[in-house]
């Protein structure tokens, strides 16, 4: 009996968006209008690339970025939840699928020593160049019309499950925990026995309820959470069964 927990990162594990938080490093903590207005829907990674160039041009160094990123608050109850999962790793495989980037997630999880809770992190690869600029790339290429160009979370989940099956690992249930519009695609891939846990008041919850109203509900069960303690209560019930 093994369960797979799939976490989004921004507004799910942490209570903010890591990509917009980095703007605190910019001069006067804001971006020039021209840069701020350059975002085009579906091309967030390219937009972040331009922000990282701007920060680098303004002399913002890696250690300052790291200090800033590790001040992001975790979502209410999340530290307790991750501690609980860490104590029960024989029952839970745990992955992150996020539109953030490897550098930010690594910094934030290592600062609180929670990187060991997660078996794998699927996110946009990032690194510092020889000139000290942070660079970010697309996670993969895909053909899903619903998802941003750089990341289809359904594709990530499907490929992970296929790879696990090849290793002889299958899951009693998948629990998907997220908040955003880009979490809907993987949630629609979940089966009847699985469970989607959208964060209360966020886009994913709204999109799931719109689907139910248009009589094309998701196949899986849906349980809304507002604090990670709600998620922990559900997981405790699961392992009692």
Automatic annotation (TrEMBL):
Signal peptide: none annotated. NCBIfam families: DKMTPPase-SF, HAD-SF-IB. Substrate binds at residues 19, 99. The active site is at residues 8, 10. Keywords: Hydrolase, Magnesium, Metal-binding. Its cofactor is Mg(2+). Pfam families: Put_Phosphatase. InterPro entries: HAD-like_sf, HAD_hydro_PyrdxlP_Pase-like, HAD_sf, Pase_PHOSPHO-typ. The keyword Nucleotide-binding does not apply. This is PHOP2 phosphatase. The keyword Transferase does not apply. One of its GO terms (molecular function) is metal ion binding.
